[in-house]
């Protein structure tokens, strides 16, 4: 959060942190709205997205630091969104594609509406809802497992690009998982987070720890802005 109360590059705060330690700033952006999602749980299906909101892309592009590292997932909707933001900012990045930041895989339920899932197997559907963040859909993965794959990749990318700005265009599930890792949230609590399309979530990694080295390494600057 900048002194003005808005999320964006705060170079004064960055210099203050760098007086004593190194800060890696993550700029998580959820992809643009999926076209013809139809209320279905699309998960890792490779669906197209709507990049017609020029004003929103311009606003995001104005926030992104010029020398950032760019990441996306292997799904076309994140790459298409990334390039729309980059064009609005006058950049032409070649993003790294990072599979561990993919959306949750919903297995046999992928592409279905909730009522269709229930009709297909009422017993399995009811069992899933006893622990919807810890249970996996049939042949899929749980949200807890999403956190388990996002967290180590976050740490790896932070080591690889230490002290840089990292722009990552990803998915609602993987961005929730990133916040869960930063705040050490239980997977059930992390599902309470709202991550809207084309929203920005800012997370910092402070080498040596926040609170003058007495706190943990991660801090959350803003969620779903």
The helicity comes to: 25-40%
Compute the number of helices. Answer: 8
Shape verdict: globular
Largest sheet: 6 strands, mixed
Rg measurement, Å: 18 Å
Span of the ends, CA to CA: 11 Å
What strand order characterises the main sheet? 3-2-4-1-5-6
Structural class: alpha/beta
The number of strands is 6
Residue stretches low in confidence (pLDDT < 50, at least 5 long) are: 1-6, 11-19
Per DSSP, what share of the residues sits in E-state strands of 2 or more residues?
A: 5-15%
Mean pLDDT: 91
> Can you write the helix and strand succession as a string?
HEHEHEHHHEHHEE
How would you characterize this protein structure?
By secondary structure, the chain is an alpha/beta fold. Helix content is 36%, strand content 14%. The protein has 8 helices and 6 strands, in the order H-E-H-E-H-E-H-H-H-E-H-H-E-E. The protein has helices spanning 11-18, 54-63, 76-89, 114-120, 122-128, 143-160, 172-183, 187-190; strands at 23-30, 69-72, 96-97, 165-170, 200-206, 218-222. A 6-stranded mixed beta sheet has the order 3-2-4-1-5-6, with helices on both faces. Strand 2, helix 3 and strand 3 form a beta-alpha-beta unit. The chain is globular. Mean pLDDT is 91; it is low at 1-6 and 11-19.
